[in-house]
Design brief:
Blueprint lengths: L9 H17 L4 H6 L1 E4 L8 E2 L4 E4 L1 H7 L2 H16 L2 H12 L4 H18 L23 H14 L3 H4 L6 H4 L5 E2 L4 H10 L1 H7 L5 H19 L4 H10 L7 H15 L5 E16 L5 E11 L5 E6 L6 H17 L7 E6 L7 E2 L17 H11 L6 E6 L14 E5 L13 E3 L6
Parallel strand pairs: 1-3, 7-8, 7-10, 10-11, 11-12
Antiparallel strand pairs: 2-3, 2-4, 5-6, 8-9
Helix pairs in contact: 1-4, 6-7, 12-13, 14-15
């Protein structure tokens, strides 16, 4: 196994794009997870793919390109996304806490069997390397991951297979957040390597925050219900459960994005002549020792992040709700250390109106517009209005609008009002003011 995890090269990104496009075409409802995931190239990982709880997908891209077809590689991505959808990582932690012991190898087998049941029920294939199906482990199809695991553990203990599966391993990797689930048992060969290099991996692929994972999974569930309805077997029942009213308030989700935006601001200090230097000036000394001209030194400053709130003022969203959203965003921004003059409000209906800083008087009490609705105009105007791209753009709308087909170059999240419908594209995360939506 290679000792280095690394970012994907341009050629590898191209291969991944092909696999991801095939996966999305065959299973459109998983698009949100496919595009929210962070992909890491791990040569010699010894498995077709693995995923951790923070949406980091580990692939040996060159080996996959060499040894497997594009269809098989796309199937592997779908398989990994199903592990995330059904929260197999969190279930493993809960199982460990309940039983006091857990065998990672058997858990991966149980999770693979459960995933492959669902893929087969959905009329989808699964990677040829997958070694665990209900049939292969001589069990009835359609069981839960817990049921598969309990029976596997019982049989393994009865057969004294301690040396094969480390049956009483307390799975320290679970506590470290490094548990991976993938397409076959070779995951265990890669796990020690991933755990050793966790800090490096954080730099290569920053882990997804909880709210990002929740939002992406919610997106998947809503897409399933829209595409297949509630009669899609276990998949449909899962989607109904996931889309039930959430206990996570939208302010928490927006706050998470704002904190991330603050961390994304330019690091270090910059020079400017609009601010005096602490040294004020220096005087040059000429070659003959005489004093030369006095040079004014620039001062330094640390830039604050820029946050933009686009408000849908077409008339279908009430002024009261727009005002409440604005006040909440301002309060969250202030808690995150973003000053009022770096939070801008931009009203959009069928036209784009002037972006106003929240430090201006009565910005939240007045709104411009009231005609048609096209949030594409507002998003397209961002690069023209702001010299540098904002660290975050929040679009407050009821969803009755068209959206850009391609992803914006700046982070964007839609805030769908309480009486609205989420129509956002797969690439755009969104949240409902009544809770977490997708």
């Amino acid at each position: 196994m290679s000792g280095h995890a690394r970012k994907l090269t341009a050629d590898q990104e191209d291969r991944l794009s092909v696999w991801r496009a095939i996966a999305e075409k065959r299973v459109p409802y998983i698009a949100a997870l496919l595009y929210a995931s962070r992909y890491v190239n791990v040569p010699g990982i010894e498995t077709l793919g693995a995923v951790d709880p923070r949406l980091r997908v580990f692939l040996d891209v060159d080996a996959m390109d060499r040894d497997y077809s594009d269809d098989e590689s796309a199937q592997a991505l779908v398989h990994l996304m199903y592990h995330v959808m059904f929260d197999h990582h969190a279930l493993s932690v809960a199982k460990l806490e309940a039983d006091g012991t857990l065998c990672p190898d058997l858990w991966r087998m149980a999770a693979d069997a459960a995933v492959n049941d669902d893929l087969e029920d959905a009329g989808l294939g699964f990677p040829s390397t997958v070694s665990t199906t209900a049939e292969k482990i001589d069990m009835e199809r359609g069981l839960s991951v817990i049921e598969y695991y309990d029976d596997l553990a019982r049989r393994a203990h009865a057969s004294d297979m301690e040396d094969v599966f480390s049956l009483d391993d307390l799975a320290g990797d679970l506590f470290d957040g490094a548990v991976t689930l993938g397409t076959d048992l070779a995951d265990r060969a890669s796990l020690a390597f991933l755990t050793r290099t966790w800090e490096i991996l954080d730099l290569l692929a920053p882990p997804a925050e909880d709210f990002e994972v929740v939002a992406a999974v919610q997106n998947v569930a809503e897409a399933i219900l829209k595409d297949k309805g509630a009669d899609a077997g276990r998949l449909g029942r899962w989607a109904i459960e996931v889309t039930a009213p959430s206990v996570i308030p939208w302010q928490t989700v927006i706050g998470g994005y704002l904190r991330r935006a603050v961390r994304r601001k330019p690091r270090g200090t910059f020079k400017t002549f609009s601010r005096a230097s602490r040294r004020q000036s220096v005087r040059l000394r000429m070659p003959d020792g005489s004093k030369g001209r006095k040079i004014i030194l620039p001062g330094t400053f640390r830039p604050d992040p820029t946050i933009v709130v686009i408000r849908d003022t077409s008339g279908s969203v009430s002024d009261q709700e727009l005002g409440e959203v604005g006040r909440e965003v301002l309060e969250i921004a202030q808690r995150c250390g973003v000053p009022e003059d770096r939070v801008f409000v931009m009203d959009v209906d069928a036209a784009v109106y002037r972006a106003r800083a929240l430090s201006e008087k009565d910005v939240l009490r007045s709104a411009s517009g009231g005609g048609g609705t096209d949030m594409r105009l507002g998003l397209a105007a961002i690069p023209e209005i702001f010299e540098k791209e904002p660290e975050l753009v929040i679009v407050a709308t009821d969803g009755g609008t068209n959206w850009p087909e391609t992803e914006t170059t700046f982070p964007t999240i839609a805030l769908v009002t309480s009486d609205g419908t989420d129509t956002t594209p797969d690439w755009m995360p969104s949240v409902s003011v009544t809770g977490v939506a997708a």
